[in-house]
């Protein structure tokens, strides 16, 4: 089979790119189409492919400023021409990738990380008061109706949808009027599951880890820990770094910046718990924490409800500092019944092999074929 993989952009290597990496492994001869590509930013499995980019790639400084070109992205993805005849187009989409124009008769299967979140239900998280300057907010309000119409219209060009969680499947139905099956994304947990379960949490700190994007709501954690007699260690970087680190922070909050991947397992293991503040589409960090044998204190909406259980974490009901602080204060009592082995067992349900086998079944379904009952991901296509 000749397969075209479509991904929004290849600039950083995060959750969406880990999905693409797993797709590359199960589709070893696929080409990749994307808006822009920063060479060297991806895994070897991705970088080794033929990668075709849009006209946005030629804009000076695009890799640092690509978010500013959101209004041009629909045109850019539609301008991409498939280089040859493909048996299948498989898009990995959280912005515009699903809008690639496919030739008549070429099946299009789309794996959805989220509908265009900044134009739908999380608009205020990105463009609300205090989030950005007045000119940007005005521009966002101006283009929002058009982008939403485009997003809904291009959904009709997809033959079959897969959502990365039940939470996102609900959004696919609500925003696009389409049904979606659910395959949770692959999580590479092996290195986190190698740390010993005994002695976890001895660092005495709570951990927040992620990109400093508006919807991640790191601000909720920072404000909560201002009122707590507990340490918060923050790992990550991103577009909100200057705003979040402005002014003085109390001594119990420590910014570590980006840390080496090799340091993450021990960082999780020594934490008392992971603090998870966003309403996430799925959320990989809670599973990494559980694989390392540590619990999660999570906002009780979105993908966290599918990855964290009452045995492996706590939930706070409102996305506010007060609600999070109250949960942290209850943690001492809750922790007495926590079992690290239960957390690791929960994480192991979301492995890479399961994802790849499920993807193969969806591919064969969209092609109208039948896959044998017990495939292995190595079977490929």
From TrEMBL:
GO MF terms held by the record: glycosyltransferase activity
Highest rank taxon of the organism: Bacteria
Claim: Thylakoid is one of the keywords in the record: no
Extent of the signal sequence: none
InterPro entries assigned: Glyco_trans_4-like_N
UniProt entry keywords in alphabetical sequence: Glycosyltransferase, Transferase
Transmembrane residue ranges: none
Any Pfam family matching the protein: Glyco_transf_4
Domain Glycosyltransferase subfamily 4-like N-terminal span(s) in chain numbering: 15-191
Name of this chain's protein: Mannosyltransferase
Species the sequence originates in: Myxococcus xanthus (strain DK1622)
């Amino acid at each position: 089979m000749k397969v075209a993989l479509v991904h929004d952009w290849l600039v950083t290597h995060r959750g969406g790119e880990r999905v693409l990496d797993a797709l590359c492994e199960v589709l070893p001869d696929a080409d990749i189409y994307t808006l822009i590509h920063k060479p060297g930013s991806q895994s070897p499995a991705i970088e080794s492919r033929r990668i075709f980019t849009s006209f946005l790639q030629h804009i000076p400084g695009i890799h640092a400023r690509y978010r500013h070109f959101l209004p041009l992205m629909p045109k850019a993805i539609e301008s991409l021409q498939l280089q040859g005849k493909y048996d299948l187009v498989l898009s990995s989409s959280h912005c515009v990738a699903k809008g690639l124009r496919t030739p008549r008769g070429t099946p299009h299967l789309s794996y959805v990380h989220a509908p265009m979140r900044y134009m739908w239900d999380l608009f205020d998280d990105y463009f609300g008061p205090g989030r950005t300057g007045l000119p940007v907010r005005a521009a966002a309000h101006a283009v929002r109706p058009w982008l939403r119409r485009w997003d809904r219209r291009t959904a009709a060009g997809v033959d079959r949808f897969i959502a990365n969680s039940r939470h996102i499947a609900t959004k696919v139905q609500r925003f696009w009027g389409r049904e979606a099956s659910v395959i949770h994304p692959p999580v590479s947990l092996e290195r986190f599951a190698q740390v010993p379960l005994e002695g976890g949490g001895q660092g005495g700190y709570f951990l927040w880890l992620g990109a400093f994007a508006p919807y991640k709501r790191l601000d909720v954690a920072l404000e909560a820990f201002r009122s707590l007699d507990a340490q918060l260690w923050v790992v990550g970087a991103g577009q909100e770094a200057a705003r979040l680190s402005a002014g003085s922070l109390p001594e119990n909050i420590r910014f570590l910046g980006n840390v080496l991947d090799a340091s993450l397992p021990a960082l999780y293991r020594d934490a008392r718990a992971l603090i998870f503040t966003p309403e996430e589409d799925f959320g990989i960090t809670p599973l990494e924490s559980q694989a390392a044998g540590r619990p999660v204190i999570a906002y009780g909406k979105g993908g966290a409800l599918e990855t964290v259980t009452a045995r492996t974490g706590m939930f706070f009901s409102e996305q506010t500092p007060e609600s999070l602080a109250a949960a942290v204060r209850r943690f001492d009592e809750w922790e007495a019944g926590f079992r690290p082995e239960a957390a690791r067992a929960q994480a192991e349900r979301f492995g890479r092999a399961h994802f790849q086998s499920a993807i193969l079944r969806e591919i064969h379904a969209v092609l109208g074929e039948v896959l044998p009952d017990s495939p292995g991901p190595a079977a490929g296509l």
